[in-house]
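A quick aside before the break. I want you to see a complete sequence-to-structure record at least once, exactly as it would be stored in a machine-readable document. Don't worry about memorizing anything.
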Amino acid sequence: MKTQKIVSRWGSSRVLFECKVPDEIESGLSMRYALEKAVAQDARLDGASLDGASLVGARLDGARLDGASLVGARLDGASLDGARLGPIRGDFFDILLRAPNEVAGLRAALVEGRVNGSTYTGECACLVSTIANVRHTDYQRLGNGIKPDSGRPAEIWFMAIRKGDTPETNQVSAITVAWVDEFLGLMAGIRGEVSA
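That is the input. The structure line, written in tokens, reads:
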């Protein structure tokens, strides 16, 4: 048996959860094993460092992952149903409220696999840069309180999306498109109330 720790992204000395992993579990899957055990025990994983973890097919239903870092994490087939993502969603909505004219273009980029959360440049880029691409401007000149911030919850969330990922192939992309649709529905409702 070996020990697998899940540590805080703000300091690897802060252990959020640890467990023994059977030797037959491949080393590349030990983080997934520990994460599933943590979720089963309702452990709080707010701010966990899951960078590079292979979570393919993991059952993470109900996980508390607020502020977790998923840089390079493989989430193909992972189940995030009921995961506590409220702060990420709230931060994402804050950005959308500051760029309402670009929301449809952002949605299209997600659906078409034209997002790469690990870069600020190029046709496929992170959240802020995708908004800038839709607006046909530089990502550092968006204004209205939108600026590059790789530590922002919504940008960290977008780091789990790579070029070519679509809602059909990446759960983070699928959840994000659902959030965009929710946002658009809320905005349509507000506009309807205002015009009534």
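Two observations worth writing down. The radius of gyration is 18 Å. The chain is about 35% helix and 10% strand. We'll return to this after the break.
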